[in-house]
Amino acid sequence: MGIRMAFLLLAVICLVSACQQEHKEKANPLHGHETHEETLSKAAVKAKLESEGYQLFEYVDEATGDTIIMQQYFIAFLKNGPDRSQSKEAADSLQILHLNHLSLMYELGHADISGPFGDDGEIRGITVYNTPTFEMADSLANADPMVKAGRLVIEMHPWWAAKGFSLR
């Protein structure tokens, strides 16, 4: 359990560090922060996303008068799979491959956030995919080595969130 927890802890620290650094480097153009995209208007951002196949809608925040762009994302619930009988060594190896897969999804811009749940329930964790279609998110999620090995299964759901809002 020690080496597995060490790898998991290292991966979480790296992911959090990368998210924090990227957040500092790339503030959100949709919320008044300057970035390399600062010249893009909300209309340009919306047009770009729609041209790439993303599903969007807008609403006006009554309190601020701001127009908020809502984007459809896809949440993958990573659940216990039918084959969790791997040896400790095999499970540890799969965990490393799983974390590498999630890191790649993040680096390629296909996933915005991932993480395990803190209990030992059937749902082991989630990943929020930022893809234009359900099919693409589902395909990427099912390419995870843990899923391919049967240790996890994916339950995918569409989810709407304000474009550019961050966790606090």
How would you explain this protein's 3D organization?
With 168 residues, the protein is an alpha+beta fold. Strand 3 and strand 4 form a beta hairpin. The longest helix has 24 residues. It has one domain: Alpha-Beta Plaits, CATH 3.30.70. Strands 1, 2, 3, 4 and 5 form a 5-stranded antiparallel sheet that branches. It contains 5 helices and 5 strands; from the N terminus they run ααββαββααβ.
Q: For this structure, what is the CATH homologous superfamily?
A: Dimeric alpha+beta barrel
The major sheet is characterized as: 5 strands, antiparallel
What form results from the Cα inertia axes? elongated
H/E element sequence:
HHEEHEEHHE
Please, how many domains?
1
Tally the beta strands.
Answer: 5
At the third CATH level, what is the topology name?
Alpha-Beta Plaits
Query: Any low-confidence stretches, pLDDT <50, length ≥5?
Result: 5-12, 19-29, 31-38
Question: What's a quick, concise take on this entry?
Answer:
By secondary structure, the chain is α+β, with helices and mostly antiparallel strands.
Which key phrases capture this entry?
single chain; 168 residues; alpha+beta; Alpha-Beta Plaits; 5 helices; 40% helix
Per-chain topology:
Blueprint: H1 2-25, H2 42-51, E1 56-60, E2 67-80, H3 88-107, E3 111-116, E4 123-129, H4 134-142, H5 145-148, E5 152-162
